[in-house]
Hints:
Blueprint: E1 2-10, H1 14-25, E2 33-36, H2 78-83, E3 87-89, E4 94-98, E5 103-106, E6 111-119, E7 123-125, E8 141-142, H3 147-159, E9 164-168, H4 172-183, E10 187-192, H5 204-216, E11 220-223, E12 227-232, E13 238-243, E14 248-250, E15 253-256, E16 260-262, E17 273-274, E18 277-279, E19 292-294, E20 299-303, E21 308-311, H6 315-330, E22 343-348, E23 351-357, E24 362-368, E25 373-380, E26 383-390, H7 394-406, H8 413-419, H9 421-431, H10 463-486
Parallel strand pairs: 1-2, 1-6, 2-3, 6-19, 8-15, 9-10, 9-15, 10-11, 18-20
Antiparallel strand pairs: 4-5, 5-6, 7-16, 12-13, 13-14, 17-18, 20-21, 22-23, 23-26, 24-25, 25-26
Helix pairs in contact: 1-6, 7-9, 7-10
Flavin-adenine dinucleotide (FAD) binds at residues 11-16, 36-39, 46-47, 49-50, 93-94, 120-123, 144-145, 173, 263, 266, 296-298, 313-316, 318, 344-346.
Domain FAD/NAD(P)-binding: 7-322
GO cellular component, one term: cytoplasm
Family: Belongs to the FAD-dependent oxidoreductase family.
Amino acid sequence: MGRAFVYVILGGGVAAGYAALEFSKRGVPPGELCIISEEPVPPYERPALSKGFLLPEAPARLPSFHTCVGANEERLTPKWYKEHGIELVLNTRVKSADVRRKTLITATGETISFKILIIATGARALKLEEFGVEGSNAENVCYLRDLNDATRLVEVMQSRMAGNAVVIGGGYIGMECAASLVINGLKVTMVFPEAHCMARLFTPKIAEFYESYYEAKGVRFVKGNVLTSFENDSEGKIKGVILKDGTRLPADLVVVGIGIRPNTELFGGQLTLEKGGIKVNARMQTPSNASIYAIGDVATFPVKLFGSNRRLEHVDSARRSARHAVSAILSPDKTGEFDYLPFFYSRVFALSWQFYGDNVGEVAHFGDFAGGRFGAYWVDKGRLVGSFYEGGNREEYVVIAEATRVRPEVADLDELGRLGLEFAFRFARKEDPLPPPEVVAPVNASQGGDTSSVVVAGRPVYGWHASAGVLVAASIAGFAYWYGWRRRRW
Length: 490
Ligand SMILES: Cc1cc2nc3c(=O)[nH]c(=O)nc-3n(C[C@H](O)[C@H](O)[C@H](O)COP(=O)(O)OP(=O)(O)OC[C@H]3O[C@@H](n4cnc5c(N)ncnc54)[C@H](O)[C@@H]3O)c2cc1C
């Protein structure tokens, strides 16, 4: 038994959905494209699972958050795929791949062959067992990666109202789940080995703000500690977690968010792996096989801005890499190199932040931490490389994205911190071919000051590149703000 397609997308997550829309926009003929996914539903906006999906009132449910509503584009329902002649092979796990023969074999034994393969297998949640802790299979231990996980988490949460929840892991999944658990009326303790939450991104000062906010909502933090075992009841359910220092925490529900692992196994020994992902070039194409592309969380691609290859685990990267790959496949002569400004966001309780670029080098904090409108700039080798802002408006996110994209030189970190958003605004006004932003930065506006020692050489060598970059950054930030504003529940 077998089927053959010109294009096969392996994986049915965010990147697959955006790739499908791009194929359709570019007029792929009916019957040529197929998506194979282990999941039972067509691609959806995965970030909804830790936000609107977990709300106790009017929760987000499919079909409302199928891709590509997150980018204010068409909602691709099963009907849409049918109408566009795109074959959805759902509930189907691919168990082996032969890139030389251009075939995939599913768990049911079907062979699906392709001319062009787009690998969009994303990543899976790391299990406790990988760290030597048994117990993931207990009824009240939850992970959160896909719709099944989210549905299960809601069921367990609703059966433990007012109970004790322990969240293992202080990353964004842990933080977003903890907020949702509190909103659902559970008493939450977060346990993680680092000195503060979101340790891969937040500085201690930024983390302190969120931790205080969470504590005011009743969340307890146990830092510098790890789970070593569970305590079970007679039915095998977890009733307590035991930490490395011997502490016992009562638990009616445990949510584990300890990281992810890219799904690359099918291609081990066939394609080049780098930084945990499938290595691709700036067209999202594997260097060793021109018929194979990789996109989204599973792809390690050149981030021009950083001059290095990165594997990103962010929804915006999945969407944009997907579109770029399809463009490179269908319009090779008109498609340049993927030139991406990394962008990541999160929303918890009434808070909302965005981050652009890279968090390496020295940090300058700015803004009103007490008032919940603050940020940070990262400066590496004398240049601005990353920007974070909490509580911003559209213009503010646009300008920090612009500034990060252009990478201005920074001579004085203290002054950068004093200027805060004004740095990005002044820079944007100097460099930006767009009309000046309508809103003048409220932060530090009264502080005035001379920026000349901060921006030593604002305009980059390649002026055209900066201008294009500004436009791209502005569109990313504009979308990001729109997404945050319009889709608060996701
Ligand atoms: C709960 C949650 C909240 C998030 N929130 C945010 C956020 O706020 N901001 C942000 O920037 N990012 C967020 N992310 C990250 C973002 O969702 C991911 O970066 C994005 O989903 C990556 O898209 P992808 O298509 O590469 O992978 P995925 O969306 O994971 O899709 C991979 C697909 O491949 C399928 N698959 C894998 N292996 C096989 C196989 N062998 N056979 C068949 N099918 C297979 C999977 O079942 C899945 O359908 C969040 C992620 C999660 C889990």
